[in-house]
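Incident log, structure service

09:12 report received: a user says their structure output differs between two submissions of the same chain.
09:20 pulled the input from the user's history:
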Amino acid sequence: MGSFAEALAAGPLVLDGGLSNQLADAGHDLSDELWSARLLADDPSAITAAHRAYFAAGAQVAITSSYQASFEGFARRGVGREQAAALLGRSVELARAAGPGWVAASVGPYGAVLADGSEYRGRYGLTEGQLVDFHRPRIEALVAAGPDVLAVETIPDTDEAAAVLRALEGVEVPVWLSFSIAGDRTRAGQPIAEAFALAADAPGVVAVGVNCCSPEDADAAVRVAARASGKPVVVYPNSGESWEDRAWQGQPTFRPERVAGWLADGARLVGGCCRVGPGQILALAEAVGN
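09:34 re-ran on a clean worker, output below:
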């Protein structure tokens, strides 16, 4: 099968879609602070089934359910560090069990653990050292489980990105770095070109780009990411609907027709995030030619 980096160099790879919406559609309550990570302990088979649905739709890469999982979050539920490390590792094992394909271990932002929307603002008031201390232990736990790649995703600002890159020093698993953006800025307000440029000299980062943003913002960001980083681009936006008054509003704008433009502009990892399900990933995979 070769390495993930070799597969990436050989041609575009199709990512999965939103894990949480697939779980919710299957009837699972994700209102807990741990979000989909709660099911790592309570119903692991549900997570495997969600991954399997995306593989069946043509996804080649499964992103694990560890986005909102952390030692701190599990501790609030009375879960000790040893068991928490095992649950983080389980997220990789469940994705691996879902079928043939690559496994990307999700490393979500610090703000996701707060469960208060901070991942869409950044600027947590923590030092870089504190962010390194938060990220490094769970990165180590995920790496120990043997993923093919680490998906450092939905990062809202350059300060946290710099901290995560520092936390990744010495890690031999390849990494993609993906920012959450609004327009041409990170969620914290920095120019996206500055954010993408952080990856230019990071040897372990094999792709840089965006996720959990509108498809329209993703279109322009792919071009900027390719220029600023000189690396392959990862892009997996939301459906295009907006979250307002505790409900999804508007019409989806995620279209497989966008993929040709992403690929032409330098994307090599393409998929979907919130509200993008197996049906859309099937259409995307067909557009890629898989």
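09:41 both user submissions now match this output. Likely a transient worker issue. Closing.
09:42 reviewer note: The first strand starts at residue 13 and ends at 14. The mean pLDDT is 94.
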